[in-house]
Amino acid sequence: MGIRVEIKSDIRKRVNAVSKKYNARQNRWVDATGSYFRNQIALEMTLSPATGKTRTKENGVRHTSSSVGNPPRVDTGMLRSSIQYKRIRQGLGLVSTNMDYAEDLETKFKRYFMGKQSKAYRNTKIFGKMFAKNLGIK
């Protein structure tokens, strides 16, 4: 008669568990990095030096803008408060603003606050790499 031993793989269960864990870590990284970027943008705008032109607004309040290369200084706070982070789908988030003049500030007036030239972007790249290491993602 003989002896028969059946070898059956349960790798499918393990792959699914690993996949779920990976997706959770990926979303945690995206959310942490996106939120950090959003906060860095707001912080850099708040700390932006008053080294640009000074003007008096219609209501009599004086405002000194930032100079070229620095993030826009906070005036009314509308731009800073409009910046938001949202996860769009698995592993993808978006930091954005809906203010029409934001793109001109970044590109035309060179008041870098969100683009690759901004300090917030550079700080976030460093943060993202460190956070990924802590999650065990290389």
Structure description:
This protein is of the alpha+beta class and 138 residues long. The chain has one domain (34-135). 47% of the residues lie in helices and 12% in strands. The protein contains 4 helices and 4 strands. It has helices spanning 11-47, 78-82, 102-107, 119-135; strands spanning 54-56, 62-64, 84-89, 92-96. Helix 1 packs antiparallel against helix 4 (119-135). The longest helix is centred in the N-terminal third of the chain and has 37 residues, at 11-47. The N and C termini lie far apart (53 Å). The model has no long low-confidence stretch (mean pLDDT 92).
Distance between the termini: 53 Å
The DSSP helix count reads 4
Unreliable residue stretches: none
Proportion in β-strands = 5-15%
- Order of secondary-structure elements: HEEHEEHH
Extended strand count: 4
Oligomer: single chain
Q: Per the principal axes of the C-alpha atoms, what is the gross shape?
A: rod-shaped
What is the averaged pLDDT score? Answer: 92
In short:
Helix content is 47%, strand content 12%. The protein has 138 residues and is of the alpha+beta class.
What attributes characterize this protein structure?
single chain; 138 residues; alpha+beta; two-stranded antiparallel sheet
